[in-house]
Amino acid sequence: MIVLLGAGASVDAGIPTARGMTSVMLRTVGERPESTKVQHAVRLAVASVVFGQGVRNDDLTHEVNIEDVFNLLDTLSERHRLEASPLIGAWHPVVEKLDRLTVGGRPNRAAGSGMVASFNSREDARKIADAIEEMIRSRSSHGTSQLAQALEHVLNPRSAFRSVPTPPEPKREISGQGEIFEKAKQFLYAELRNHVFVGADRDLSYLDPLVAAAERERITIGTLNYDNCVELVAARLGVALDTGLEAWRDKGEIGFGRFDAVPFRKLHGSITWARAMEEASERHPLPREIINEATARDLERPDYEPAIIFGGRNKLTVEGPFLDLLRDFRDRLNAARKLVVIGYSFADAHVNALVTQWLNKVEDATITIVNGRDFAGEARGFARRLLNIPGDRVTNFEKGATEGIAELFGAVKPTAS
């Protein structure tokens, strides 16, 4: 059996869904008047997603998915480095206006200051004039000497010159090269952390039967969520989890070889996964990016960017363990006969492709969907096609996560380790 968790599986833990998260973010950014440009960038991204849905004639009855907002901000921050950027004559004026930086207006330190001769009095000028007149009249060395003395007095640095600072560089606007949209992403990352990183005091007991059954029956659990709910439940129940990261850090590929732990596949990463650069060593001769469990200090950093990916064009990135995790999940799925989906709305094209391949390949494959009572009435696209499959291969379990998990996995306790 394979269990796949989506955002709906964490709703009973008090975590918003991917669509509900957008509304939360909009409210929060609206309460930050000191970040006017960031506020504008976030609102622009959300409105652009909605406009795109209208252009494509998509269903507009649902809220905007926060993953789409992140992806749009990522595109805008990288817009000048996109492969197609040479073919784009202009972006919307609001995009360019938001992403402007004001430079100049400060003293030009690189140019330094200038020195300007300054006669201290009319007496200085008279002395020089008299010396020149005497030199012309007498044509003697005395006149020349007199002129030299006068000039030496006048040109003394302590009295004859004054420092004049170079005029400040005039203010001008330049392209921010995506900076404001990067700041908007950082704001959303911080808010995401505030909502999906769960404390140990949160009531997560509804997940107990699932974690316990996974340990006893070696059930494969995959999740598309970034939160740490399953990890907290496992720690409380004394169940060890293996995310595959240990093998990936050592060998550069995902592996689940620990016999004392339940494999737990976080396909889109985790709010507690921190990116870090590792220098070259004898074991690994080239510098590389690794992922560690975030410390409390990591999570408190304002610029903390967790190792997570969102739906869309960056889902199949070769950076990090994500491509390996997807392949591994595909292999586990192809070897299974039953898939239990809890809280996943079938909005991820890559995951849907794996489910399609599996259903078409394994003749007796079955899916049990635990997405609440409203799922059948709201299903669109791939989800609707699944529900329309004839026979008993797809079962829509019209219950939420708490009821569904209790009924499917029972109130079992983990076996002693």
Question: What is the strand and helix layout of this fold?
Answer:
Blueprint: E1 2-5, H1 18-30, H2 36-55, H3 66-77, H4 93-98, E2 100-103, E3 113-117, H5 122-138, H6 141-154, E4 161-165, E5 172-175, H7 179-196, H8 208-217, E6 220-223, H9 229-237, E7 241-242, H10 245-251, E8 262-266, E9 269-278, E10 288-293, H11 296-300, E11 306-308, H12 322-334, E12 338-342, H13 349-361, E13 366-370, H14 375-378, H15 381-387, E14 394-397, H16 401-409
Helix pairs in contact: 1-2, 1-7, 2-3, 2-7, 3-7, 5-6, 12-13
What keyword list fits this structure?
seven-stranded parallel β-sheet, three-stranded antiparallel β-sheet, 14 strands, 42% helix
TL;DR of this structure?
With 417 residues, this protein is an alpha/beta fold. It is built from 16 helices and 14 strands.
